[in-house]
Amino acid sequence: MQDQLIIFDTTMRDGEQSPGASMTRDEKIRIGKQLERLRVDVIEAGFAAASPGDFEAIRAVAEVVRESTVCSLARANDNDVRRAGEAVAPAARKRIHTFIATSPIHMKLKLRMSEDEVLEAAVRAVRLARQFTDDVEFSAEDAVRSDVDFLCRVFEATIAAGARTINVPDTVGYSVPERWGGLFAQLLSRVPNADQAVWSTHCHNDLGMAVANSLAAVMNGARQVECTVNGLGERAGNASLEEIVMAVRTRSDLFPCRTGVDATQIVPTSKLVSTITGYPVQPNKAVVGANAFAHESGIHQDGVLKHRETYEIMRAEDVGWGANRLTLGKLSGRNAFRSRLSELGITLASEEALNAAFAKFKELADKKREIFDEDLQALVSDESVTPEHERFKLVSMVAHSETGEQPFASVVIADGGNEMRSEARGAGPVDAAFQAIEQMVSSGTELLLYSVNNITTGTDSQGEVTVRLAKEGRVVNGMGADTDIVVASAKAYLSALNKMGISTARMNPQYGTEQAAP
Predict the structure, then answer these.
(1) Cβ-Cβ contacts under 8 Å for 105 (sequence gap 6 or more)
(2) Neighbours of 417 (CB within 10 A)
(3) CB 8 within 8 A of CB 42
(4) What DSSP state is assigned to residue 108?
(5) How crowded is residue 330: how many other Cβ atoms within 10 Å of its Cβ?
(6) Is residue 269 helix, strand or coil?
(7) Residue 102 in contact with residue 143, Cβ under 8 Å?
(8) Pairing of strands 165-170, 325-326
(9) Domain with CATH 3.20.20.70 in the chain
(10) In terms of C-beta density within 10 A (0-12 exposed, 13-18 middle, 19 or more buried), how is residue 504 classed?
């Protein structure tokens, strides 16, 4: 019998720390339901003490997710632990994940605490967390740069205090596989009560080795991997969930464990997270990239045609590719539309919202011959800002581009009940559209990113545009989709402006580094 490898997904907590990737309550619910469909073991839904909005989002996820364990992060202090306990209280399966830094540089310069003080705080936090749930996890932040003797002391004490999972994080992405695997082997042999806890690894990708380090830990006794969908996360990101799962599955001859993940849900989950966060998946990304199962070389194509396994070590359909076509069209009815949204884990807030989405679907069906699940995800995400928070809305626009002439755009937007119109010229039609919008709104924001991706294949595909704006330390992503890329760009810009104006519905954990971990 193989051991169970616990998949701990932290997309909604550590992944959310990516600039502009913060999520609304409803978006976290959608991702939480999809992660449950993916059958991950633990869902870290956020950091309850970070903000009232994050607390409510975690609680909302805890109320709807019944099969996976719902977890909240908490620093090793009474307030954080209590907030985490209250946030996950409705969950059928709940966990509190508490942490404190253990490296000399963090203890001296950030915490200004001695080793004994850190040890005492860790034990106290674990004991308090046990009052809310028996499932308590402890992390030693920056374990990669911590003294091994001190790590052994802290881990022995926190296990004795009731921690049932011990997480060893490479917080700064500093380690290499041989050293990281060796650290786990050393800890499991030196901590006297090591057999009373599940050992977990949490690796960042600053040197591009997060997945490799995580797998090295698994080979040396770790039985939980903390990871994110698409490798999302602050700086260079985290270990990629899809790569961990498929590496263990594909190389079952090497790894003495298995996961309970439904791999066919990997690609749908990847697309949902990408759409909601505004972080596109690069085409050559392992497992979930558009080119992951594409073959350009004639030699490779010939080999695959003769026998797939000549060049493919996984089947595309096993991770969810090729099963995403929606057989709906302009003649499809509302019930079929509603049913497919439900299958995708999308629940609209009201009958009015369903009617609006269905009308947009009909408009899209008139433009495209085939509708895909990705089109529906984009359609719903395009309406992700609720009406009460949607200040600006695109009414109409005209854009013109001609060789030898300076492009221009005329844009009409609604600001509440009022319509405004402006025209501008620019380096291109998109630039002209953005300048026209700015003439009306004078947002004072800085454009950090403009990115275009096709949602599906074909010249009639919708273009999905991501716009990242910054103002006074706040970073937001806006997304827009349309078969006309200039219209999609205007929608994305307005989406970002709407989110910039929402101060309570969105959390920004990437700011306030004293809260970021592990």
Answers:
(1) 142, 145
(2) 5
(3) yes
(4) I
(5) 14
(6) helix
(7) yes
(8) unpaired
(9) 10-284
(10) exposed
**pLDDT score, position 278:** 82
**Contact between 32 and 62 (Cβ < 8 Å):** no
216: Cα separation from own chain's centroid:
24
Q: Check residue 238 and report its DSSP letter.
A: B
Specify the domain boundaries for CATH 3.30.160.270 within the chain.
Answer: 325-518
DSSP 3-72: EE-EEEE-TTTTGGGSTT----HHHHHHHHHHHHHHT-SEEEEEETTT-HHHHHHHHHHHHH--SSEEEE
pLDDT digits (tens, 9 = 90+) for 432-491: 999 999 999 999 999 999 999 887 777 778 888 999 999 998 888 888 889 899 999 999
| Long-range residue pairs from 463-467, CB within 8 A, at least 24 positions apart, any chain | 463/488, 464/275, 464/280, 464/378, 464/488, 465/489, 465/491, 465/492, 466/278, 466/279, 466/280, 466/492, 467/492, 467/493, 467/495, 467/496
Pairing of strands 257-258, 3-4: parallel
**Cβ distance 32 to 52 under 8 Å?**
no
Cα-Cα end-to-end distance for the chain: 32
Q: How far is CA 357 from CA 159, 249, 341, in A?
A: 50, 38, 10
Rounded to whole angstroms, the Cα distance separating 382 from 107 reads 44
Report phi then psi at 47, rounded to 5. Answer: -125, 95
| Residues 360, 461 contacting (CB under 8 angstroms) | no
DSSP three-state, residue 210: helix
Q: Which residue has the tokens 């650290």?
A: 183
Task: State yes or no: pLDDT of 333 exceeds 50.
Answer: yes
Coil/strand/helix, residue 401: strand
User: What is the rounded distance in angstroms from the CA atom of residue 437 to the CA atom of residue 193?
Assistant: 62
Q: Domain spanning 325-518: which superfamily?
A: Alpha-isopropylmalate synthase LeuA, regulatory domain (3.30.160.270)
- Which residue has 């319509």 as its token pair? 419
CATH 1.10.287.3510 corresponds to the domain 10-284:
no
Cα 47 to Cα 81: distance, rounded to the nearest angstrom = 10
In angstroms, the CA 411 to CA 440 distance is 10
pLDDT of residue 337: 83
CB count within 10 Å of CB 115 equals: 15
Residue 175's SS3 state is coil
C-alpha–C-alpha distance, residues 203 and 288, integer Å? 20
